[in-house]
């Protein structure tokens, strides 16, 4: 009987062992299939990332070109503004040179009278000079003889 018992065990254990081995093989196959699927997904993701990087590079190049065009436009506008400012300054100098005696204003006259009044300590300052708050500033701007009008001097041309 012992032999029949052993035989039964062999017939019982053998299929279980075969199933276990088959299960291991199918697990390995499943893992291999999963790894292949993961690799395929990784390749697709890498292709999408490369395409996105190419699009981003194209967009960056276009933005750089637009920035270069904007910089050139700003430089052109600056040159034109400076040219017009120089022209206006030249026109003002020409106008001043053409009419030297006519441009004296009451502020300049007031500054001259207050300058002469301050040189003699007996006289009080004139009412015109003390009445306008800009008279002292105009007096200091005109007392050196550089400006002969009440307008502020034009800035020097920038080159």
Provide the residue-averaged pLDDT: 74
Question: How many strands in all?
Answer: 0
- Gross geometry: rod-shaped
Provide the gyration radius in Å.
Answer: 49 Å
* Structural class computed from helices and strand pairing: mainly alpha
The helicity comes to over 70%
Q: What is the number of helical segments per DSSP (H or I, 4+ residues)?
A: 4
How big a fraction of the residues is strand?
A: under 5%
Runs in which pLDDT lies below 50 for 5 or more consecutive residues are 123-144, 146-150
How does the major sheet shape up?
none
N- and C-termini, Cα separation = 120 Å
Order of helices and strands: HHHH
Number of domains: 2
In brief:
The chain is built from 4 helices and no strands. It has helices at about 1-100, 105-120, 125-130, 135-140. Helix 2 (about 105-120) packs across helix 4 (about 135-140).
Can you tell me about this structure?
The protein has 159 residues and is mainly alpha-helical. The chain folds into 2 domains: 30-98; 103-159, no CATH class. The chain contains 4 helices and no strands.
Helix-strand layout with pairing:
Layout (H helix, E strand, L loop, with lengths): L1 H97 L7 H14 L7 H5 L3 H8 L17
Helix pairs in contact: 2-4
């Amino acid at each position: 009987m012992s032999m029949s018992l052993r035989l039964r065990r062999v017939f019982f254990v053998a299929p279980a062992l075969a199933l276990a081995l088959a299960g291991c093989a199918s697990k390995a196959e499943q893992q291999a299939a999963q790894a292949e699927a993961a690799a395929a997904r990784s390749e697709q993701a890498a292709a999408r990332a490369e395409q996105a990087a190419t699009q981003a590079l194209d967009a960056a190049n276009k933005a750089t070109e637009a920035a270069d065009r904007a910089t050139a436009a700003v430089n052109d506008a600056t040159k034109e503004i400076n040219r017009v400012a120089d022209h206006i300054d030249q026109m003002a100098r020409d106008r001043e040179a053409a009419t030297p005696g006519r441009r004296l204003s009451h502020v300049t006259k007031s500054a001259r009278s207050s300058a002469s009044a301050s040189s003699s300590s007996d006289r009080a300052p004139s009412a015109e000079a003390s009445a306008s708050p800009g008279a002292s500033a105009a007096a200091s701007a005109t007392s050196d003889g550089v400006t002969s009008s009440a307008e502020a001097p034009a800035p020097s041309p920038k080159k």
